[in-house]
Please model this.
Amino acid sequence: MKKILELKGVTMQFGGVTALDDVNLHVNEGEILALIGPNGAGKTTVFNVVTGVYKVTKGDIVFNGEISVVGKKRWQITEAGIARTFQNVRLFGEMTALENVITAGDVRSKSGFVGSLFGLPRSRREEKANKEKAMELLKFMGIDHVAHKLGRNLPYGDQRRLEIARALGTQPKLLLLDEPAAGFNPSEKVALAETIKKIRDAGYTILLIEHDMSLIMGISDRVVVLDFGSKIADDSPKVVQNDPRVIEAYLGVPADAS
Amino acid sequence: MVYGVLRLINFANSEVFMLGTFATIITSKNIFGYADDAEPLTGIKLVYTLLACMLASMLVCAITGVLVEIIAYRRLRKTGSNRLTTLISAIGVSIVISEAVRIFTSSAPANNPRLLDKIYLISYMGTEFYIGSVRIPISAFEVRLDTLVVIVFAILLLISVDRFVKHSRLGKGIRAVSMSEQNSQLMGVNLNKVISSTFFIAGLMTGAASFFYITVYESTKFNVGFELGLAAFTAAVLGGIGNIRGAFFGGIALGVLEIYAATIFGTQWKAVTAFVVLVLVLLFKPNGLFGESLQQARV
Amino acid sequence: MTFNLRDKGAELWEKSPKPARVAIASSAMIFAICLPFLGGTFLNTPISSYEAVLVYPVGLFVLMALGLNIVVGKSGLLDLGYVAFFAIGAYTMAILGTTTSLNFWQILPIGIGLAMLSGVILGLPTLRLRGDYLAIVTLGFGEIVRIVALNTMSIGGPNGIANIPTPPKFLSLEYTLQNQKAYYWTVLFLIFMVIWMIRRLSSRRPGRAWESIRQDEDVADLMGVRILKYKIWAFAIGAAIAGAGGVVFASKSMFVAPEMFTLNTSILILACVVFGGMGNIWGVITGAAILAYLPERIRFISDARLLIFGLVLVIMMNVRADGILPRKKREKSLQS
Model:
């Protein structure tokens, strides 16, 4: 199986704080990998170093077996094929849902400033194609009925879905979802789980951070557990669920103490 | 200080400074009744007159500062406006104050009577001497009473503010708010009170500065705030914005740089020095010497 | 529910079929073209010549406000040194006009080019800075340009440059001091072009890039938007527009001096953008027209003009931060 993402000996330090400590993990192409751990374990930091928000203190991050992410600019990483959503919804609130996705799709456009200004054929073609693709993505995520509503006027559930649609708009190979189910009620979580599976089936690889265990156990192929910046488990959901170290990390006591 | 707490560059502060300079003049001329060409004072009369002028400036600036906050910034802070909006509001206030004074004074300068005499305490014309065949020049060097008084007072003031921020309850509140507005409120800090106090203290210091300025330079005009405000801001950035001690060093560094530049390039380029230093610092070392980074992405 | 002029206007526009839109646009354009002939009406300005006022400050402020709007209103980059680009355009006209045999039309593209270049030079190192700091640096740049002009004797120093030639006759239109109509129509033409350009860019990739940068720069970066590139383009286009205005200004005033290009002017243009409605073309045009015209019309305002501007800024920001014609707020169907 091809490794679409690999973190090799990644250490991330901020001043005196070590957020990630010699982390080695990989994501296989086409799988759904869940990244879990208690608060502060470093999960979002992993997202941040992979997307280029922070530069790793040590180690390397290899995408698609060939490109090193470290030191690259954020847009270059997106162009290479990694996209993400955010813990707190961060849409372009004053744009419509459709515009949000089209903006994300612009990363694939070749036409530049001059082309847009003078309405050159390539620019017009790309505009049209981009708009159609964006509409399809909205349909795919079930929010095409609000295509022309402003981002900040959407109900919470649609906003979350829009964030995912927007990330998909960049035509990524690897999709990073940061707590996509936050604030959802149980039935919404079930629907989300189905959607995530649908996304994977459409050909994307997914790395997701989540706290809801049943959601994770239901859809993940593999689970990686972080605690205090180190990886403490990396296995199938069932195994990880019963791993005493994982239980201790969450509950603070060894599993057999009572 | 205001930046540290509010992440706001208080453009209006330069105009508060300008008001302080006028306050000193009004106190010495109108309240104490000294004319432009009055004889310098000595002894106890000198001390209490100067203190009165300084206090007047400090109070005027402090009160104005707090008023500015309430009128121009508070509402924006409450409604969570973005920085652009607040910045424009600050610029607006700055313009209103300086224009109001301009119209009131008809653009004429105002002068302060020389109450503290400019006596040279030490004056040294410069000489050189030789060690073997190596020439060692010692250039002219002088210590003047008024500049000495200013420097001593300034240092005293800075030390007090520094201690206040570190040790007093209000000072801790200010530092807490500068680190996290939300958390400090959760911990029971009264946000409005802290912010008003910050502006008040900043105003006190600005007032003292304006008093020092007038004592040494003796003349002011409605537009004196701009260039000095810019220099002040540059000094703060140079030292690391948000950091009081940094500002102190920044101020000294900038002063030295300006004088060197004036000597090498000519005095008409002095104004540009502050700008150029500012631009260079912001481009290459935005943390200044001691301060926080301005560039962190927020994700 | 507050009455939103912009949205009502937008609704009206969208409900109208194509022929109606053409009619509305044409009548607006014709009205603008005919403005110089309305000098005999209540619109007349008591102090300066009505026609001269239409060119400067009204026309040129509108032009510059449109330019600054791209930088501040659309992209969210606070530029407090905008007048520098205006000055560069003006001095280009002044220097080339008095030392070479090039005429206005030949100098115009050069002035625009130089201003654009300065925009890029200013932008490249500074656009990594955030909000307040960008404001200070741009302010510094504006002042540096002015002080350099003040201290450089070879371009006139404090006395500036005089005897700048007027543009040559254009299709029987004469550019004279007495009859400023030709200048006005030149400025109007530039304004029309700029409006066309902005509308074009707004509905396409650059417009989206600028909006996303303004709304959430970090996220835009992560969505693959080319932040640096489009920020520099915003600066460059804004500078080009101001530069064009500067060239016209110099050939109209026939004299330039550093004191004409102060920080105050930058702030005035900013006030126009803010007052009118940041990001919204029509708001900005209206705001600039009003703020530029009123002091000329009503005498007592003129002396306290800057004071009133300051008040406008403070009040507007506190009461209605979006301006008199705010940016699009309601959803409209995406028909281009």
Notes: Residues 43-78 of chain B form the longest helix (36 residues). Chain B touches chain A through two residues (CB under 8 Å).
